[in-house]
Each structure stands twice: as C-alpha cells, then as structure tokens.
Amino acid sequence: MSLDTRILQALAEEGYTTPTPIQAQAIPIVLEGRDLLGIAQTGTGKTAAFGLPLLHRLAQEKGRPPRFGCRALILSPTRELASQIADSLKAYGRHLGLTVAVVFGGVGFGAQRTALARGVDILVATPGRLQDLIDQNAGRLDHIQTLILDEADQMLDKGFLPAIRRLLKSIPAQRQTMFFSATMPTEINRLASEMLKDPARVSVAPVATTAEKVAQRVIHVAAAGKRQVLAEILRTEGIGRTLVFSRTKHGADRIVKQLDQDGISANAIHGNKAQNARERALAAFRDGSAPVLVATDIAARGIDVDGVTHVIQFDLPEVPETYVHRIGRTARAGASGEAIALCSHEDRDKLRAIEKLIRQQIPAETRAGMTAPAAGDAPAPARASQPKPPRGDHRPQRQPQHRPNGHGGKPADPKRGGQPGGNEARRRPAAASDEPRRDRSWREGDFRDGSPAPAFLRRGK
C-alpha cells in the first residue's frame, strides 16, 4: 500500500526524497492498522513515521470530526514538540483538507476552546492542558480512532503517567495506538503491555547506541570550576550553535546569568518560562543572535534546530539513557557534532553508569585543579565530621527530642503549642537563626548554653 498521492506531492514540495529507516519500517505497519512500538533516536524522523500514515488513513476514511472532539490524538511532553508536530502535519497534509489543532499550557484557553468546539481531525496536546479542557467540558475523547504517544519515555520520566492514565479512561478501547520513544525504560514496556494490542516493534537503534558522528569527551572539573570551563569552551573552541543542559530550571537561569557576566550571549528555556519567552529564545537560537541555549531536559524535547554543533552537559543526567538523548541533539541529518560533559567528583557515579550503558569509555581530560580519576575509582570521600562546639558556644544547636515523665522531663502542654515548660516557652519567642538557640534539655539542670534553667525544671523539683 502506498501513500496518498496528495501526501507524496507535499513531500516533494518539502524536498523529501528517501525515507529514513524508522519511516521505511513503521509506515507499512501503521497503514495496516496495527499497533506499533517504535524505538529510535531523536532526529531520525519519527514524526513523519507516524504522521504520514495517519494522514493517509484519515484522508481515505473521510470521517467528520465531532464537535469538541477529534479523530486522532497525539500526546507530547512539551509545548515546543507539540507545536513542531502540528506544523509538520500541516505541511505534509496541506493538500488533504484535514484540520490540525494544538493545545498546551502557558497560554490562554480561548483560542483552544474555539478550535475544539468546531471539532478537529488531529489534535496535538500536552496531557495537562488537555485534561484541563476536558474538566471544563470544552473537550471530549470518545470519538478517537488513533492514539499516539510521542517521546513516551519523557512523559513518564516527567510524571505525566497519572494524567495519561486518566485520559485513557475517556478514549475508546477500539483504537490504533502507537508509542514512539528515543529510549526504552522498563516503564514503557509495562505501559505498552497494558495499552498496545499485539504491537509490531520497530527499533532502529539500540537504547545504548549513541550517534556515530558525535565526538564525545568528558572534562573532569571541580563543581565550582564548571562556570569557568564552560566560558572557556564557548570562547576558545570555535563553537557554533550550542545547546547546554542544566538539571534544574533555576540552574539554567543561573548559567545564563553567569554567561552574560562573562560576555557570552545566551538564553534559557524551561517549564517556568512563558510561552512567548520560550518562542523568542528559540528564534534567537535559530537566527544566531543568541547562539547558546541553556535548557532542561523536558524543555529540550521539540528543539529541532539544524546546525547544532555542540551539546554541553553542565550537569550530568540522573538517568543514563538521557545522556544518549541529549547528545542526539547534534549531528542531525547526517552532520557531525561534538558532545562535552562536565564531570565533578559528585558526578562520577553518573559517568560510570553512562559508560556502562553505552559500553564505551568516554575520552577524558582534567581541568581546574582536579585530579583525573583512576578506572573504577571510589566516590569522592565524605567531608570530615566537624567537632561539636564546646559548652557555651553560641552557635545554633539541634533541638533534642522531648523526654517523657520519669526521665527527667515534663510533658508538652498541647494548650500551649505543645512546648515543654508552659509559661517559659510561651513568654520567650523562638530564637532567630542568627541568635543563640537554647537547647531545652534539662537533664543536667541547666540549658546547654550555660544559662540556668528555671527552678521548676530542675531534676527532682
């Protein structure tokens, strides 16, 4: 079975000539109506792999979308990826007359409610916003014929599983379901067994395989020296368009601020950014006015920008498979690229897990006063324990647990805030963090800061 000639015409206009491996394997299976579990690295053409046969089937069936509903639903973990998928489907199906809408958070509900009220053939959505619309009686899922989860691993990693399960209760059991993912954690297998019926499995690259044209290296550096090393790399190594990964949203903002202080133009993109700010950051990244983009993993999904020469991992990921996905942001469409990881003492366990996953040792160098780790080295030693302050020292002390009657204590009075000593505790306000804190333990008759305890608290009184 071949694709609709109108789709082939649109592909020719887009300059597409040869299908990628994931497309060549997946499209015939989807056209047959089978469920599909597809595993492929990012940048291999997954959107066309599910989008082209989806458009073909919807065009052939010529159904009418229900009001407030859709015929096909595509779930995405991020706004950027949702917008990218919708744009691609509109381009591939420009001659078909099908309607495509996208809904995601961070923007107003008005336009999204209006689009759903008329009904759409294909809805691309993030799980949270879609559930919000359903809760407002502005959306329905009971006419869905095809369900697609793109980047399913990231939707699970980012905590979308409860929202997905809730949405599934409203979707007909008789449907075609597809999973597409860059990695294959255990949770995907478990969910696939629950949702997919006799699925075909297509795997273009093993989960542990990194892109062949990506040159990898790791720089061992003290955590405090990462900022300096990052600035040196960006200044001295002829780097072009660069994607920097941060573990947290606040970390991404901090890196951008530090780079600005170092005279390097950069923007951050993460879940706390407003949609217009994210779009401006992506536009500046694409046109080169701010060639450094600092992103969290969830925001990086959907960043499909040609010419990314370098991926720098300021923070190594907690999940080793995420490393594979990150470096797949470069060396796309046959180009080459470089991936650099900054590894502190605290990151060495993560680095070993990554090297175990990809079955290779990443070439390493050392900077900023670090000593290169030996193979199989132990984790960084714990900090030496600090001596306990002498009696009378006015540093804050830990509050000891209250001891019941019969062990030198007095029970807490719940009418007085649960504090021992009743009137004394009520009269004296809680100590500020920069003032001496009295340790209310009266086993020896005095407070540990040297001041005498009230007579009624002394042992035997």
TrEMBL record:
Superkingdom per UniProt: Bacteria
Motif (Q motif): 1-24
Signal peptide: none
Span of domain Helicase C-terminal: 228-374
Molecular-function annotations in GO: helicase activity
Region of interest called Disordered, as start-end residue ranges on this chain: 364-461
Keywords, comma-separated and alphabetical: ATP-binding, Helicase, Hydrolase, Nucleotide-binding
SMART domains tied to this protein: DEXDc, HELICc
ATP-binding is among the record's keywords: yes
Matching InterPro entries: DEAD/DEAH_box_helicase_dom (IPR011545), DEAD/DEAH_RhlB (IPR044742), DEAD_box_RNA_helicase (IPR050079), Helicase_ATP-bd (IPR014001), Helicase_C-like (IPR001650), P-loop_NTPase (IPR027417), RNA_helicase_DEAD_Q_motif (IPR014014)
Boundaries of every DEAD-box RNA helicase Q domain copy: 1-24
Ranges of Basic and acidic residues composition bias in the record: 434-449
Record Gene3D superfamilies: P-loop containing nucleotide triphosphate hydrolases
Biased composition (Low complexity): 372-384
Matching Pfam families: DEAD, Helicase_C
Domain Helicase ATP-binding: 27-202
UniProt record similarity statement: Belongs to the DEAD box helicase family.
PANTHER family hit by this protein: ATP-DEPENDENT RNA HELICASE RHLE, ATP-DEPENDENT RNA HELICASE RHLE-RELATED
UniProt protein name: DEAD/DEAH box helicase
